Amino acid sequence: MKRNYKILAYKILSPIIAIFLAAFFSSLVILAIGKNPVEVFYTMFRFSFRRLDSVAIILYNSTPLIFSGLAVSIGFRMGLFNIGIEGQYLIGTFLAALVGFSFKGLPSFIHIPLVIFAGIIGGMLWAYIPIYLKIKRGVHEVISTIMLNYISYSLIHYLISEVFIDRTQKLLIRTPKLLPTALIPKLHGFLSLFGIELPKHVYLNWFFPVGIILAGIIYYMLYYTPFGFELRCVGQNPDASKSAGINPENVFYKGFLLSGAIAGLVGLSDLMGYFGYMDLDFPRGYGFDGIAVALIGQNSPFGIIIASMLFGFLKRGAEGIQTLLNVPMDTIVILQALMILSIVIINKVMSDYIKQIEKKGVA
Predict the structure, then answer these.
(1) 73: exposed, middle or buried (C-beta count within 10 Å: 0-12, 13-18, 19+)?
(2) How far apart are CA 291 and CA 306, in angstroms?
(3) Residue-wise DSSP of 148-215
(4) Residue 301: is its pLDDT beyond 60?
């Protein structure tokens, strides 16, 4: 029992040490550009947390990353690398937008679930291709998902600029606007019940609590359902799982499609809660950021929530130091990259040390 607590403590300390290590190396970068690291980090915290609306913006920034990190973590749990979250969420977002502006005359309580369902289906369809190729043709999922990302970029570009372009717009190439019944409500009305008043420029919406709830569902699925047990077993050792009566191919199919379904939700907060349409400049990069979030969160659903909020804070803090101190946004990109490198290295060191502890316990 004492050994289990020791192992848990090391797992918790691992990302914390990585964050401090990344902050240290980032300080060297900040010094190299002639700025004071203490002033930069203080400004980031002060700009991000001094007002409630700024905290709400952090939560809004973290919302897509929660879904992205969860989608990536499902693949990691199976021992697969779903690098295609980027393409899957773009396809899902486009199908959601299509349903959002095409289905007229529906009430909100029907239209909103239909739009969300369309996003889920789009992510699943784009995830089905690589897992089919892997199981039936032996194509590695990293290669197929990366290639499908590029295909999705071009396909979305064509559909938006040629097929479903809003002809009423002369300067902006985008889809028609979603109907009002397809837009997700903000959290302003709900929060006002507790005396929290947010300004109109804050777009925190109901996808944030949905992401939190989904993380709880994924946690329950992983540790308290037969499928979650099979998924973790296959991720640890597919051959041993097969000997125990588990069909790894069946688990791969279900798990990868689940990953794609969650990926289909990544862009919906921006689509339904902020832009109201999809254009050629629709936010990208959430899929790749989700890999970093899953790594920092150590594939734990609740760890992913914390890591997503950390990235949301970094994005908000970057705006502050760029505005107030004239520090380039690239500094935050460097900080994120250093975090990823640090967590990978420290995770490796910690996991090796934990294995030694476990071996001593068995002995």
Answers:
(1) buried
(2) 14
(3) HHHHHHHHHHHIIIIIS--TT-SS--BPPPPPGGGSPPBSHHHHHTTT----TT---BTHHHHHHHHH
(4) yes
Q: What is the DSSP letter of 272?
A: I
What the block records as the tokens of 286 is 């959430």
Strand partners, 205: 186
Q: Which domains does the chain possess? A: 36-326 (1.10.3470)
Q: Are 261 and 120 in contact (CB under 8 A)?
A: yes
Instruction: Tell me 51's DSSP state.
Output: S
Q: What angle do CA 321, 330, 302 make, to 5 degrees?
A: 80
Single-letter residue type at 94 = F
Q: In the prediction, which pLDDT does 58 show?
A: 94
What is the per-residue pLDDT for 360? 67
Residue 20 token pair: 């401090």
SS3 33: coil
Q: What sign results for the dihedral spanned by CA atoms 327, 333, 334, 336? A: positive
Residue 24 CB contacts under 8 Å (≥ 6 apart), including other chains: none
> Is the confidence at residue 289, as pLDDT, over 70?
yes
Q: What does the pLDDT average to over 252-272? A: 95
Contact between residue 104 and residue 221 where contact means Cβ atoms under 8 Å apart? no
pLDDT digits (tens, 9 = 90+) for 192-213: 888 888 888 889 999 999 999 9
Q: Please work out, in degrees rounded to the nearest 5, the angle formed at the alpha carbon of residue 116 by the alpha carbons of 232 and 147.
A: 60
Structure tokens at 348: 């490796």
Average pLDDT of the chain, as a whole number: 88
The DSSP letter of residue 277 is S
> In the prediction, which pLDDT does 363 show?
55
- Mean per-residue pLDDT, 333-359: 74
Contact 117, 96 (CB under 8 A): no
pTM, rounded to two decimals? 0.91
279: three-class secondary structure by DSSP: strand
Q: Indicate the pLDDT class of residue 2, thresholds 50, 70 and 90.
A: low
Answer for the pair 176, 101: CB distance below 8 angstroms, yes or no. Answer: yes
DSSP 281: T
